[in-house]
């Protein structure tokens, strides 16, 4: 295990700055996820750590060594790619042991390492097969096995599940999580899928346009997003972001929405009367009132997504749209008028101008 320190890294391609003063610390044995939309720079940062790209500015340390100018083979890392990158003419065993053979390791030692990794990944019955005889999930496990046998200081994963179908993604995701628990190797994982980030990451780095927007534990990002972008990127279904103005009545504060609805907010938010804000309401923190005259947001149901275990209800009225999510079934129909009631204690609040999270104090 070894720490990875990315210190003020910048990367330019010609006159275009794609990575801008990024600093990330990954502790020994930690599983860190880099997440962001396409073009955010997450894969470029991974390639900089791997040595596949050279940093324009800044420094990278792995296991206490400055590796900024070292070639990939001297960085003690192993990378798992999106496209398995298996040699089609080689068996599973040969693919897994290829890098060890190139390093000059003895055949008996290679066989031992391959056998141990294959057993760990439940590939021990497939060692004589060619890649074309394997499923997508099995091929990705071979790719991971090829990394494991090298016993690196750091594992680097570049969107390894993106070529798998939904069922296989869930299965292999669980295998990667289990693998990390057993090996405890420092791991950095790139994805655009926030479900992967939330379920795998001990630390998540949210990126946008080559900059770090927020770094934290999964539930910290979910409960306390630093800005509107992070709030909208973390969470499924996406958070409802509603524009409004702060109304103050004595010690009571509320946000007045465009339709005239008043949504109470916690007194600890540092806001002033008439301040323009963005109110963040997560779909799972909304309920439908039992009484039509209840205090809340009156809307009409426009669409229902029912998966059996989950129910997502899309609602709207002129100038306002809401998505509510439930774990239990509801007797609701498209076209029905309902009143949505938020859990006021779980609302997020952002300044309309800066889009930053409004400061909160528990002393209020």
From TrEMBL:
Superkingdom assignment: Bacteria
PROSITE patterns linked: ABC_TRANSPORTER_1, ABC_TRANSPORTER_2
Record domain ABC transporter: where: 4-234
This protein's record includes keyword Ribonucleoprotein: no
Molecular-function GO terms, alphabetical: ATP binding
Coiled-coil stretches: none
InterPro entries: AAA+_ATPase, ABC_transporter-like_ATP-bd, ABC_transporter-like_CS, ABC_transpr_MalK-like, ABC_transpr_MalK/UgpC-like, Mo/tungstate-bd_C_term_dom, NA-bd_OB-fold, P-loop_NTPase
Entry keyword ATP-binding: yes
Keywords: ATP-binding, Nucleotide-binding, Transport
Family assignment from sequence similarity: Belongs to the ABC transporter superfamily.
Name the UniProt record assigns to this protein: Sn-glycerol-3-phosphate ABC transporter ATP-binding protein UgpC
Organism encoding this protein: Roseinatronobacter alkalisoli
């Amino acid at each position: 295990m070894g720490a990875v320190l990315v210190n003020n890294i910048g990367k330019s391609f010609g006159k275009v700055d794609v990575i801008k003063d990024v600093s990330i610390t990954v502790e020994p044995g930690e599983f860190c996820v880099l997440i962001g939309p396409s073009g955010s720079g997450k894969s470029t940062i991974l390639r900089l750590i791997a040595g596949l790209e050279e940093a324009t500015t800044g420094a990278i340390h792995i296991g206490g060594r400055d590796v900024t100018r070292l070639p990939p083979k001297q960085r003690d890392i192993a990378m798992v790619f999106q496209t398995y990158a298996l040699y089609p003419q080689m068996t599973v065993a040969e693919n897994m042991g290829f890098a060890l053979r190139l390093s000059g390791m003895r055949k008996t030692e290679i066989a031992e390492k391959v056998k141990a990794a294959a057993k760990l990944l439940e590939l021990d019955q497939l060692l004589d097969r060619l890649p074309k005889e394997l499923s997508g999930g099995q091929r990705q496990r071979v790719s991971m096995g090829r990394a494991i046998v090298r016993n690196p200081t750091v594992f680097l994963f570049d969107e390894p599940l993106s070529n798998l179908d939904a069922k296989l993604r869930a299965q292999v995701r669980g295998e990667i999580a289990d693998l990390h628990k057993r090996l405890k190797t420092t791991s950095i994982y790139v994805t655009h899928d926030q479900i992967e980030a939330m379920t795998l990451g001990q630390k998540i780095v949210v990126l946008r346009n080559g900059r770090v927007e927020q770094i934290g534990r999964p539930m910290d990002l979910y409960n306390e997003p630093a800005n509107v972008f992070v709030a909208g990127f973390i969470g499924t279904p996406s958070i409802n972001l509603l524009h409004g103005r702060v109304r103050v009545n004595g010690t009571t504060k509320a946000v007045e929405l465009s339709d005239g609805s008043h949504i109470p907010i916690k007194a600890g938010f540092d806001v002033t009367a008439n301040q323009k804000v963005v109110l963040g309401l997560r779909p799972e923190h909304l309920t439908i009132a039992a009484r039509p005259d209840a205090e809340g947001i009156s809307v009409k149901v426009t669409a229902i997504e029912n998966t059996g275990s989950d129910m997502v209800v899309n609602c709207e009225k002129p100038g306002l749209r809401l998505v509510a999510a439930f774990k239990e079934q509801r007797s609701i129909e498209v076209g029905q008028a309902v009143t949505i009631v938020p859990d006021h204690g779980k609302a997020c609040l952002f300044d309309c101008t800066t889009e930053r999270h409004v400061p909160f104090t528990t002393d209020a």
